[in-house]
Amino acid sequence: ALELLWLIHNTLANKDLGDHIFFEGFDIEGYEEDGTPVLFINCGS
């Protein structure tokens, strides 16, 4: 879990997200054919 949060932090660092700069969680949108989860990152203000 810590590694996932670290990867999310590095992905969002230095991005222009407007007012939506706080990580609020993520939702699983589905899975790739090989079983890799597809995540939607929720950001808020």
Description:
- With 45 residues, the protein is an alpha+beta fold.
- It has one domain (2-44).
- It is 24% helix and 40% strand.
- The chain is built from 1 helix and 2 strands; from the N terminus they run H-E-E.
- It has one helix at residues 2-12, and strands at residues 22-31, 37-44.
- Strands 1-2 form a two-stranded antiparallel ribbon.
- The radius of gyration is 12 Å and the shape is globular.
- The mean pLDDT is 86.
Could you list some keywords that capture this structure?
alpha+beta, two-stranded antiparallel ribbon, 2 strands, 45 residues
Amino-to-carboxy terminus distance: 23 Å
> Low-confidence stretches at least 5 residues in length (pLDDT < 50)?
none
**Tally of distinct domains:** 1
The largest pleated sheet is described as: 2 strands, antiparallel
**Sheet with most strands: strand arrangement:** 1-2
Rg calc = 12 Å
Using the alpha-carbon principal axes, give the shape: globular
Pattern of helices and strands = HEE
Short description:
By secondary structure, the chain is α+β, with helices and mostly antiparallel strands. The protein has one helix at 2-12; strands spanning 22-31, 37-44.
